[in-house]
Amino acid sequence: MADVFISYSRSDREYAEALAGILQKRGLAVWWDVELLPADRFPQRIVEEIESAHAVVVLWSKASVDSTWVTDEAAIGLKSKKLIQASIDGALPPPGFGIATTQIADLSSWSPDTPAGFSQKLLEAIERLVPSHKGVDALKERLAQLEGETATLAGALGRVQRLKLPLLALAATSLALLGVVGILLARPSPPAMATPPGAVLAFEAERCPGGWSAYAPAFGRFVRGIDPGVEADRRRKPGSLEDDALQDHVHEIAGAKTAGHQPQVGAPHGYDAGALGNTINETKFVRSAKVGDETRPKNVALLYCLKD
After folding, report:
1. Structural domain harbouring 261
2. Which is more confident, 166 or 50?
3. Inside any domain, residue 107
4. In terms of domains, do 196 and 77 share one?
5. Of 105, 278, 302, whose CA–CA distance to 204 is shortest?
6. Contact predicate 74/58, CB 8 Å
7. Angle at which helices 13-25 and 120-129 pack, to 10 degrees?
8. Which phi and psi angles does 77 have, rounded to 5°?
9. Residues 180 and 229 placed together within one structural domain of the fold
10. In the prediction, which pLDDT does 160 show?
11. Could you give the CA distance from residue 71 to residue 92 in angstroms, rounded to a whole number?
């Protein structure tokens, strides 16, 4: 929905365009027929825009007073009590538009190339009909605030140390496992990037870069990407902890080499110690030990660092 609808004759297009620019600079949303799309039903779309606008500004001229389109648009605005009339060449509105009771803004000394001649009273009349518009002073005040905020932001970014490490990937917005806002993975030789204090990065490095300190809560943690379609991951909840994998373990196998016997079908083995001639030629134990190594899938060891 636009704040202001502009009605004009085609021959006065440059005036309508200049007026639209002036109003837009003052923070007002403007609609004029250049907004029409090829698929639009022109009469219906125009009526909808007039009815939804807060103000209807008609630019009267020698050409527009003879335009059926302009007079119809002005009539709808008048009926809705939101019509504001201006004359760009001294021409008066057709009968029925309150010439005797309504003031017509005189823009005959104004042209699109000389903004200084524009009517301030016309602007004030338009702004009175737009309830959400707070006027030029409020807009200037907000622009001043934005300029100050921009300067403050520029100064803050200028004080942020630029990383010499590239962004590899952005993990979850909130990682309950580590209790941090976010995690970034980085490798050496990157484009510069600004990182706010308190952020945590995971580096493929043995020590944290300047301006960073080691993030102890992440030491020894194994961060896993869950695949919801895999049975092993289906029961896992994001941020949940899993017990450490088995580290110290031993595998033992015991076997016997025998002779002089016939294996029995269905028996667990073919050796019968009570049978004559059955002897054990050799007894062998195989022992395999793993101490200290973790039984885990292949993973990448990263150093987590906290931005100072």
Report:
1. 249-290
2. 50
3. yes
4. no
5. 302
6. yes
7. 70
8. -65, -40
9. yes
10. 41
11. 12
Task: Tell me: do 237 and 277 sit in the same domain.
Answer: no
Regarding whether 184 and 52 lie in a shared domain, the answer is no
| Average pLDDT for 121-138 | 74
- 177 is a domain residue: yes
Give the Cα separation of 10 and 26 in Å (integer): 25
pLDDT tens for 250-286 read 666 655 555 555 555 555 555 455 555 555 555 555 5
Do 240 and 262 fall within a single domain? no
List pLDDT tens digits, range 64-116. 999 998 999 999 999 999 999 999 999 999 888 876 667 888 998 888 887 66
Does any domain span residue 154? Answer: no
Tell me which residue of 55, 56, 74 sits closest to 65, measured CA to CA.
74
- Please check whether residue 121 is in contact with residue 84, taking contact to mean a CB–CB distance below 8 angstroms: no
Residue 110 shares a structural domain with residue 131 = yes
Q: Check whether 295 has a pLDDT greater than 60.
A: no
Residue entry with tokens 């150093």: 303
CA distance 30 to 32: 7
Residues 46 and 122 in one domain: yes
| Amino acid 229: pLDDT | 64
* Same-domain check for residues 69 and 183: no
Q: Which DSSP string corresponds to 233-251?
A: HHT--TT---PPPP-SEEE
Q: What is the spatial distance between Cα 231 and Cα 250, in angstroms, rounded to a whole number?
A: 28
Mean pLDDT, the chain, as a whole number? 70
pLDDT above 90 (res 59): yes
Q: Tell whether pTM > 0.85.
A: no
Name the domain count of the chain.
3
The secondary element (H helix, E strand) that includes residue 287 is strand 279-290
Give the single-character DSSP code of 63: T
Judge whether 67 lies within some domain.
yes
The residue type found at 103 is: Q
Give residue 245's pLDDT band: very low, low, confident or very high (50, 70, 90).
Answer: low
Considering Cα of 292, then 297, then 302, then 304, what sign does the dihedral take?
Answer: negative
Structure tokens at 11: 């021959």
Residue count of the chain: 308
